[in-house]
TrEMBL record:
It catalyses: Fe-coproporphyrin III + 2 H(+) = coproporphyrin III + Fe(2+); heme b + 2 H(+) = protoporphyrin IX + Fe(2+). The gene is hemH. This is Ferrochelatase. It comes from the Bacteria. PROSITE patterns: FERROCHELATASE (PS00534). GO terms for cellular component: cytoplasm. Its EC number is 4.98.1.1. The lineage of its organism: Bacteria, Pseudomonadati, Campylobacterota, Epsilonproteobacteria, Campylobacterales.
Length: 308
């Protein structure tokens, strides 16, 4: 296949309830997620966490219709991208659930070029590094050359314009509402060890704030897990300070909606917001398979090819 191939990478999520345990085991057995040096000990701990969390996690996905929205949205995005242009062939692979990258790569063994595009705006060892390391290892084992990797793109103006436009379209009067950028949290220890995630999140909000006019703009973190210290403030604490206000939530860490946005933000924290007296609570969808995001992806690839 003499084509320029682009493989979109993401963490993945259960395609049905039978994949919940597979998803959890694979995620917690990732050395970048659970940095335990011994593979045997890490595998043991991953299995233990899976046993503890699988029942609760299944209930979350049952609430969402038995699966994560991530795979279906990604499939739509791929289909649309392949329909609207002929310069690239798009496909996708997931880190912790099917389709895995080692299953996708053989399809493109004879491609003209292969570009990896991790759908994470901000760098973290838990996302960007994990996905690229996994893909490059699979490519090396299969004797397949990877031509390019797209680096974190939170500074790209076209990407940020798309986010700002999506947020603005979610309500009529932004000046009477507070905007909360909700980012997936990360253990503080990882930041102390040099992970750039928190720095990128703060810089991203600074850039986006220049394109938006709200009564207040806030950063919150979600999805804490376990007894270790995580990045703060937790979204519940931020909402506590906005009682009686109109609040708009944007899932800053995600390009594609997942359980963290569709369950945590849309269901769990909506109920909490109602309980504490938030007057209006709006969750903006991630860019997903929107025309603006498709346009950004294509322009990013063309710019990347032109610069090399």
């Amino acid at each position: 296949m003499q084509k320029d191939v682009v493989i979109l990478l993401n963490m993945g999520a259960p395609n049905d309830l039978s994949e919940v345990e597979i998803f959890l085991k694979n995620m917690f057995n990732d050395e970048y997620i659970l940095p335990i040096k011994s593979p045997k000990i890490r595998s043991f701990v991953a299995n233990l966490i899976t046993k503890i969390r699988s029942k609760k996690t299944k209930k979350i996905y049952e609430t969402l219709g038995g699966k994560s929205p991530m795979v279906a949205i990604t499939q739509r995005l791929i289909t649309k991208l392949n329909f609207v242009q002929q310069d690239f062939v798009f496909d996708y692979a997931m880190r912790y659930t099917t389709p895995f990258v080692n299953e996708i790569l053989p399809k493109y063994k004879n491609a003209k070029s292969i570009t990896l595009f991790a759908l994470y705006p901000h760098y973290s060892q838990t996302t960007v590094l994990s996905s690229y390391d996994d893909a490059l290892k699979a490519a090396s084992e299969q004797g397949i050359e990877i031509s390019k990797k797209i680096e974190p793109f939170y500074k790209d103006d076209e990407f940020n314009t798309a986010i700002a436009s999506s947020i603005k379209s979610s309500l009529n009067d932004t000046k009477s509402a507070h905007l909360v950028f909700s980012a997936h949290s990360l253990p503080k220890k990882m930041i102390e060890n040099g992970d750039l995630y928190e720095k990128h999140i703060n810089e991203h909000i600074e850039l986006l704030s220049k394109k938006l006019d709200f009564k207040g703009i806030h950063l919150a973190y979600q999805s804490h897990l376990g007894p270790v210290k995580w990045l703060e403030p937790n979204i519940s604490k931020v909402l506590d300070g906005l009682k009686g206000e109109r609040v708009v939530i944007y899932p800053l860490s995600f390009c594609i909606d997942c359980s963290e946005s569709d369950y945590e933000l849309e269901i769990l924290y909506r109920a909490y917001a109602k309980k504490i007296g938030i007057s209006e609570y709006i969750v903006v969808k991630a860019l997903n398979d929107s025309t603006d995001f498709m346009r950004y992806i294509l322009n990013k690839l063309k710019q990347t090819n032109a610069s090399k």
